[in-house]
Amino acid sequence: MRKLVLFLHASLDGFVEGPNGAMDIGWISYDGDLEKYAKEILSTADTVIWGRGTYQLMHGYWPSVPSNPSASQHERNHAEWIDKTAKIVFSTTLDKVEWNNSRLVKEDVEEEIKNLKQQPGKDMVILGSPRFAHHLMQLDLIDEYKITVSPVLIGSGLPLFQGLKEKVNLKLIENKTFDSGAIGLVYQSVR
Q1: Are 184 and 174 in contact (CB under 8 A)?
Q2: Where are the beta strands (DSSP E) in the chain?
């Protein structure tokens, strides 16, 4: 059975976005170490799961990277990966998705995720989409939490965890410290 993996960056005080919204992420300790770690995580996935907002942000950025002369090699490689990877967008307000290998799901999130888990393939990864991730956490659909914690306190913003109604038991299966002082944590849901 395929796993649904949440991959997010968080501040030490537990925020995934700063107080200025979705792109308030300049505090992430992103360097070569973290690029390599992200590539390792994404190598286990063949499907990206997004909510509407993150899909629109990503679609507005990544397709332009290959033609951007100032893009790094890491960015170019990621743009190539994301373009050819299956992308499933969950939204009740979008009418269509136009990015290569994208599919729109408008209803029954829980049933769709359960069906996707039964299909053959690699892991599915929620890249960003913290608000949608909160909803999936409430439905107990996330199998692994891969969180990088940056050594910074930002004081306010969107919390990593929000709206949980019940306790979620987790088992630490990996931790890694990066040169920047960031920490990579991998927790598995215990059901």
Answers
A1: yes
A2: 4-11, 15-17, 45-51, 86-90, 102-105, 123-127, 144-150, 158-159, 170-177, 183-189
Q: Which amino acid type is present at position 15?
A: F
- H/E stretch holding 31 reads none
Q: How many CA atoms lie within 13 A of 42 on its CB side?
A: 21
Contact between 127 and 25 under an 8 Å Cβ cutoff? The reply is: no
Q: Taking phi first (over 0 means left), then psi (-120 to 50 degrees means alpha), and beta for anything else, what does residue 6 get? A: beta
pTM here?
A: 0.94
Q: Give the pLDDT confidence of 156-180 residue by residue, as tens digits.
A: 999 999 999 999 999 999 999 999 9
Instruction: Summarize pLDDT for 126-154 with one digit per residue, the tens.
Output: 998 999 999 999 999 999 999 999 999 99
**Cβ-contact 149, 12 below 8 angstroms:** yes
Residues 68-83 have pLDDT tens digits of 999 999 899 999 999 9
Contact 97, 105 (CB under 8 A): no
Distance between CA atoms of 116 and 123, rounded to whole angstroms? 10
CA–CA distance, 62 with 77 (Å, rounded to integer): 11
Give CA–CA dist 19/60, Å, rounded. Answer: 22
Q: Are strands 144-150 and 183-189 parallel, antiparallel or unpaired?
A: antiparallel
